Amino acid sequence: ERQRLVVRELERRIEELAVVSPVDGLVARVDANDKDTVQPNQRLFSVVDLSAFEVEVLIPENFADEIAPGTEAAILADGRDYQGRVRSLSPEVEASQVRGVVAFVGEAPSSLKQNQRVDTRLLLSARRDVLKAPRGPFLESFGGRQAYVVRGSVAVLVPIRVGAVSVTEVEIVEGLEEGQQIVLSDLSQLRGAERILLR
């Protein structure tokens, strides 16, 4: 009986040597080698929970005031967009940028890896069924109030009114119709000529 107790105590001590991860995932980094002497609470390895990946984003300082936790995001990975949401924002500015964390909402890409780079767009506003044009130097040339519409070999200056402006596109509220071609380049040197001949 005494020997059985000795064996049971040894089995208990051996079971305590097993290290159990608190989450399901993959071992990302090993911090202790085999047969190393370790101290209590010393890190042995890091486990990555593949089901809880988050994206770290750097936001230009001038846009930081418009973004808050809960702002929607689109994360481009594996050639498709995944829905995300801003989870937190850093209260400090580093190199004119604010650091934020975007969490996946719903499905996340299965092939994502730790420290992998992905493209992320923060959606400050969304408008549907609008007339839009590519953003070009014409917008700054005429202050968003005029544009040249192409009619055959002539471009005619017409008044327009713009709405929302993004990095790549501009909403046209008035002055243009769907299917019309406009000149996107900078034509400020023409000093507002009403008609120009295109060659």
Structural notes for this entry:
- By secondary structure, this protein is mainly β.
- It contains two helices and 13 strands; from the N terminus they run αββββββββαβββββ.
- The protein has helices at 2-16, 137-141; strands at 26-30, 45-48, 54-60, 72-77, 80-94, 97-104, 119-122, 132-134, 146-151, 154-159, 161-165, 169-174, 195-197.
- A five-stranded antiparallel β-sheet has the order 3-6-5-4-7, with no helix packed on it. A three-stranded antiparallel β-sheet has the order 8-12-11, with no helix packed on it. The chain has a three-stranded antiparallel β-sheet with strand order 9-10-13, with no helix packed on it.
- A hairpin with a 3-residue loop joins strand 11 and strand 12.
- The longest helix is centred in the N-terminal third of the chain and has 15 residues, at 2-16.
- The chain is rod-shaped and about 105 Å long.
- The termini are far apart.
- The model has no long low-confidence stretch (mean pLDDT 86).
- Please state the overall shape, judged from the principal axes of the Cα atoms: rod-shaped
Which oligomeric state applies? Answer: single chain
List low-pLDDT spans: none
- H/E element order: HEEEEEEEEHEEEEE
Q: If strands are numbered along the chain, what order do they take across the biggest sheet?
A: 3-6-5-4-7
The major sheet is characterized as: 5 strands, antiparallel
Mean pLDDT reading: 86
Distance between the termini: 104 Å
Q: Which structural category fits the helices and strands?
A: mainly beta
Helix content: 10-25%
Number of strands: 13
How many helix segments? 2
CA-atom Rg in angstroms: 29 Å
Strand content: 35-45%
